[in-house]
Design a protein that fits this description.
heterodimer, A: 419 residues, mainly alpha, Cyclin A, domain 1, 21 helices, 60% helix, B: alpha+beta, Transferase(Phosphotransferase), domain 1, 5-stranded antiparallel sheet, two-stranded antiparallel sheet, 13 helices, 9 strands, 33% helix, phosphoprotein (chain B), serine/threonine-protein kinase (chain B)
Chain lengths: 419, 401
């Protein structure tokens, strides 16, 4: 049983791995479904006051031409919007004493990203989901604290009920898979191996029998210089370690890396960006190499390619793709153009939120707790008028709370909203 | 499976899972066509995520109730398309726990989603219905090992024990290979399939191995199966805790009564000392540093039990079997045999050969109800309101800092 076989049984591979095309089409479907629902719900809510009974005719309002079309977010806009909350989530972890562990924050960010693959931020505001994602991560990553204590640390002090309300919805969006395979552990292992080699304690790889601890150390000391000068090999490994870790904490979390690549591919790609010669050396200790375009195999196609060379070539392509993805990331907050774009999206989002979605997340508050497990399974359907009433109530509450909301209020000041 | 237990450390070069994508895509396409329908969009269950959930839920039909506990209700059910029988475990949400879904359920779902092995109960699907969590589990109508141990009408011998222990050892090995500690191995968590296969169940106390230096709770594993390091309050431990429990199950299979059955944690340590010798810094360097360790007076130290003791106490196992049991019951967890080493022990290959599943002793009457009881129970609980188990485990102490 090799590591790949184990990885293929993981939920991260089975449920949460995609090609770029499938990822894009999934997001497009989610967006289409949510947009249609938003349009219908918003029209109904808008028309509701005219209907005394509160039961508008379904379908009759769809064609009303006098209405301005409702401008929904595009899948790309949704992605930027969610990314802003993923970045906030990273900062939210600092509010705790001691600060929450990096892997726990990373788990919460991935929960949020997975959730929004099949849910739209127009239906469920990320602001309402993110705290719950972080709390769920404390539970699944064995870093337990009480909900009360957890909620108190959040700016704006939301109530415990507010934080936990969308938990079930979130778990459903996660398709009840909680295990996230992070690249951090692989990085630690690789750094330990390199440090051992630097100390002359390297373990030769079984498939490359010519290696010895001494030859490994010699090879390590003779690699090309690092991108920034370092005083010693230990110093160099340390810098590469930090640089890689930083990329894994940020770029790897905020891009689609987890959906497209395996944890080992991700950390090796980040490592490649931090110190290319060192990463190449590490790969050579495992797979031999470097890859030299062979002229012999061109002339004789019947010669089977060395499987290690083949593997290395394949890997090299994957790593360079993943590196490019990671390198393309800049934090929203550090880029004025992105901030401007984000503000535009936030403004647009305000006008195309689905009021029903947020009720759904709050259903737990108002719903009767199941009295006995044998209770009937036919849940009470919320009537449309009830939905509208809740939507209005929510809107009122939201206005009341204004800037005191979770995480320092809206991106767009209240005055400019809703016009 | 056990033939090549070592994972190679080469980087994976798998790219993505087209199958999943296609499945999700199909679901998306299906729902997309309906989404323009006003009726669909006015329902609160229209989001793609809910449609995916509903399509899973629709695959199963729920049948009669098999059991009910404080934590869950278990039903028999079947898949609509294949008519495969399954067990559906409906978790009671928020029974007495205010912080959302209880940790038992979180852990069980988290780990069973990742573990797929013939000797670990299979989790086929998870879905929600009216804000209730439903786990679709493998249907295991053969009862559990505890039932067979206790039933005086059931006769079994060394070959049967070898078969059962072999299946347990493979299940435990697989968990450890995937960096998961079970932390509640005991006879009534070892369920039996219709074909006689033993399956490790109840992952409500499971967790993944902690990173080095991070603490874990010592309040796990039902007392009679709890290793000395946990009784002494160790906060950093390994798969060795499960191996001890396995040893206790082995001994119980041989004796047909629990081997060291203390009526308090202190009494448990006393009984372990009586049986295997008093833990001290000679047979277990470092034990004196454990938080709850109490030094025994020099005159009352019981010497460590040797091979003779195990041979005398467990004649059924034979000398090689007794040797395996002794390695599982080593006081010092660092010297205790590991799961991989267990699988490589000579006992499996010498005579008698393990009984084939079809010939294993079993209850004549169907034991579906037993499955219902086992699955609806919280870990660390026992069916009868037995004193010794009351405070075991499940006390939420998560060993933060």
């Amino acid at each position: 049983m090799i590591e790949d076989t184990i990885y293929r049984t993981s939920s991260q591979y089975r449920v949460w791995s995609y090609t770029e095309e499938s990822l894009q089409s999934l997001r497009a479907s989610t967006n289409t479904i949510a947009s249609d629902r938003v349009r219908v719900t918003l029209r109904r809510t808008r028309d509701a006051p005219q209907s005394a009974t509160g039961t508008p005719q379904p379908g009759s309002d769809v064609d009303s031409k006098e209405e301005k079309p409702i401008d929904c977010l595009t899948p790309e806009e949704e992605l930027v919007f969610v990314r802003y909350y993923c970045e906030s989530l990273l900062e939210l972890g600092d509010e705790y004493k001691p600060p929450l562990p990096t892997t726990l924050r990373a788990t919460a960010i991935q929960y949020l990203r997975r959730f929004y693959l099949t849910n739209s931020p127009m239906t469920y505001h990320p602001k309402k989901i993110m705290a719950c994602a972080l709390f769920l991560a404390t539970k699944t990553d064995n870093y337990y604290m009480s909900l009360q204590k957890f909620s108190e640390a959040i700016p704006g002090s939301p109530s415990a009920e507010e934080v936990i309300a969308p938990e079930f919805l979130l778990m459903q969006g996660l398709r009840f898979t909680f295990d996230i395979r992070h690249p951090f552990r692989g990085l630690e292992g690789g750094i330990m191996e390199l440090s051992a080699i630097a100390e002359g304690q390297g373990q030769p790889t079984p498939i490359l029998p010519h290696q010895t601890a001494q030859s490994l150390k010699q090879a390590l000391l003779s690699i090309a210089p690092p991108p920034t000068p370092s005083s010693s090999i230990t110093d160099r490994i340390g810098r590469a370690h930090n640089g890689t870790r930083e990329l894994l904490k940020t770029a790897a979390q905020m891009t689609d890396a987890y959906f497209l690549y395996t944890p080992s591919q991700i950390w090796l790609s980040a490592f490649l960006l931090s110190d290319r010669p060192l990463c190449e050396f590490y790969l050579e200790t495992k797979l031999g190499g470097p890859i030299i375009p062979s002229t012999n195999s061109d002339s004789d196609p019947s010669t089977p390619l060395d499987p290690l060379v083949e593997l290395r070539t394949k890997l090299s392509k994957v790593l360079s793709d993943c590196s490019a993805l990671l390198q393309g990331y800049t934090p929203l907050s550090s880029d004025p153009a992105q901030i401007k774009n984000l503000k535009r999206i936030a403004k647009k989002h305000y006008k195309c939120q689905n009021p029903e979605g947020l009720n759904m997340a709050q259903k737990r508050d108002s719903a009767q707790p199941p009295t006995s497990a044998s209770a009937t399974d036919s849940g009470p359907a919320t009537s449309e008028s009830e939905t509208e009433r809740l939507a209005k109530k929510r809107k009122l509450e939201e206005q009341k709370r204004g800037a005191q909301d979770l995480f320092g209020g809206e991106l767009v000041p209240d005055r400019t909203k809703g016009q | 499976m056990a033939a090549s237990p070592f994972a190679s450390r080469s980087p994976s070069i798998t790219v993505a899972s087209p199958n999943t994508a296609i499945r999700l895509k199909a679901a998306a396409a299906q729902s997309g066509s309906e989404s323009t329908d006003v009726k669909t969009s006015s329902q609160s269950h229209g989001e793609l995520t809910e449609q995916l959930n509903d399509s899973v839920a629709q695959n199963y039909e729920r049948g009669k109730k098999l059991g009910e506990g404080t934590y869950a209700v278990v039903y028999q059910g079947h898949r609509r398309d294949t008519a495969t029988t399954v067990a559906i475990k409906k978790i009671k949400v928020n029974a007495d726990y205010k912080d959302g879904l209880a940790m038992d359920a979180i852990r069980e779902v988290k780990y069973l989603q990742e573990l797929s092995h013939p000797n670990v109960i299979a989790l086929h699907d998870v879905f929600s219905k009216n804000e209730n969590l439903h786990l679709v589990l493998e249907f295991l109508p053969g009862g559990d090992l505890e039932m067979l141990i206790r039933d005086q009408n059931v006769q079994y011998g060394a070959a049967d024990i070898k078969a059962w222990m072999g299946m347990l050892a493979r299940g435990v090995w697989f968990c450890h290979e995937n960096f998961v500690l079970h932390r509640d191995i005991k006879p009534n968590n070892l369920l039996i399939a219709a074909d006689g296969e033993v399956k490790l169940a109840d992952f409500g106390l499971a967790r993944s191995f902690a990173d080095p230096y991070l603490n874990m709770t010592h309040q796990v594993i039902t007392r009679w199966y709890r290793p000395p390091e946990l009784l002494y309050g160790a906060r950093q431990y390994s798969g060795a805790v499960d191996i001890w429990s396995m040893g206790m199950v082995f001994a119980e299979l041989l004796l047909r009564v629990p081997f060291v059955a203390g009526n308090s944690d202190l009494d448990q340590i006393a009984k372990i000392s009586e049986a295997f010798g008093t833990p001290n810094k000679d047979n277990w360097p470092g034990v004196e540093a454990l938080p709850l360790y109490i030094e025994t007076d020099k005159n009352s130290i019981i010497p460590t039990s040797g091979r003779d003791f195990f041979l005398r106490q467990f004649p059924t196992a034979g000398p090689v079997g007794a040797d395996l049991l002794m390695s599982m019951c080593t006081l010092d967890p660092r010297k205790r045999i590991t799961a991989v080493q267990t699988l490589r022990h000579d006992w499996w290959t010498i005579d008698p050969q393990p009984t084939k599943n079809a010939d294993l002793p079993r209850k004549r009457k169907s034991a579906e109800k037993k499955m219902g009881e086992d699955l609806s129970r919280r870990g660390g609980e026992i069916g009868i309101s037995d004193g010794p188990f009351k405070n075991a485990a499940r006390q939420l102490d998560f060993g933060g800092k």
